[in-house]
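Hey all, sorry for the wall of text incoming. These are the two entities for the joint prediction.
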Amino acid sequence: MSMWTSFDEVPFRVSWIDVGEWRTRVLDAGSGPVLVLLHGTGGHLEAFTRNIRALTERFRVIAYDMPGHGYTTHAHTDIEIGTYVDHLAELLTTLGISRAHLCGESLGGWVAIKFAEQYPTLVDRMVLNTPGGTMATPEVMERIRSLSQAAADDPSPERVRSRLEWLMADNSSVTDELVEVRRAIYARPGFSESMKHILCLQNPAVRTRNLVTEDTLGAVIAPTLVVWTSDDPSGPATAGRTMAEQLHNGSFALIENAGHWPQWEQQELYDQLMLDFLARSEVPTS
Amino acid sequence: MPVALVATSHSPLIGLNDPTTEIRDEVRGVLDDARAFVRDFDPELVVMFAPDHYNGFFYDMMPPFCIGASAHSVGDYGLPTGDLSVDKAAAYDIGASVLAQGVDLAISEDMQVDHGFVQPLLFLFDTLQSVPIVPIFINCVASPLGPARRSMDLGSAVGAALADDDRRILLVGSGGLSHDPPVPRMEDAAPEVIERLLLRGRNPSTEQRATREEKTVKAARAYAAGEAGYRELNPEWDKLVLDALSSGDFARIVDHDNDWFVREGGHSSHEIRTWIAAYAALSGQGPYQVQSRYYRPIKEWFAGFSTTIATPASALAHARVSNKGVVR
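and here's what came out:
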């Protein structure tokens, strides 16, 4: 099953929507309460293709390529979290969406948290999937930076595969199709420069001023599920537990046998967690 | 803005068909505590979301939402008649801001309000005129109703409209949890009832009002006595609603369709929209803490009766929240 045939019974539309200076690639599928999916550093909306089918059973799912990423306009200056946050706010406005669930993976989770802090009334609930932004571990930052930039500078299947393998608990989770999808994006003229600007958050000084602090977490009102994994390359599960505790209304879940992409490696389990948490509007028996 | 919230049930039957002295005193204590909280908070403006019960709003022109730039109590159920001390400028400012944010609401320069507004006002203050107020009506009874989520959008927009106001602002939501007292409905009322009550019921004669109110009291007595034909209160559903609002988890209730509210909480449970709006307005200031929460199903008053008080979780959180407010 390919990425795109995994939800071939679901009506969807991929379009490019002008959001300020960013011509933004957006996948829009399903109907119901809105759920926005945010990918990670160097990522693209295909990160969630395996989850579309299950999630569209309950939600209108919006997945998009963030500024400088995927098929959205390349970045020509460094992009910090505020740019992603403002872009998301404007994207929702453009789509006429007044409130949404957010699910962010890695960088996407970082953006979601900052978004929820700044725009509390726009967020219903959040799922943070091994989110970034709370830690600044030099080795991890350097690894992301070097693997990502190498793949963008030399978008060979091998380089792209190495970057993708970093995400997975099991290297065999990286399919040839996933490599090819990312390779095509990274091979676009100008992407290498965009990647440099994306990676500014791996620079210690820049990262520090964008970090998610305890105060940030304490200022988020949206009920939030923090998902961590057994094999996450970005940090230990305790980091996720601590986040859940520091959130006003946080809970925590651990997924075994997955790395940075549990939505991909443990798709069924992940989807079930998402649905249990986001679609939780149980009717009491009366 | 320094902000606080009181959300409370109301019931026109308070004083007319009371439960046991013990329960009456318990509620009195809860409302006294709320009054003391408000006195300490010392609000400079009250923004109140409340419904109407065919005393001020009729089918001759039924808006989903209406902000009062001037408002007058009709004095139903023996409550005082007279003008509320409406802050006209604030009403227009909030109205304009809410419209600009994409939530449509009507504006009235001659809003008539009933016990839905007046009771909470008098629970918390001495007179109708004790405090500057902006009354915001939410239609909770005259079908068709919009989705509950829309009341949250209204509240969020009002919260954003107030974000730059330096005054101490008390947000009030007024309405029942589960309850289903007999209210005539456009769908199935007799033509003369529609004409007399739902369409042209404004400014009834003293006798007409008395007759109508006697009927309500009679119905409440029958209900409390266990007579058949009435829907039971639903404490379990009420708990779900209170839990959701206490934790800022609006989606847990507002994603349901209107039938769910009727099925679980009875027709008048739509009044919880006033709480949703008030809590949504508060949530724009970041996390909040419910300071106190009282609940008791009281059949004599035809209501799952609840009073809650909430304040921002921390002044720090408040200071950090952007004043950009709702983006649309």
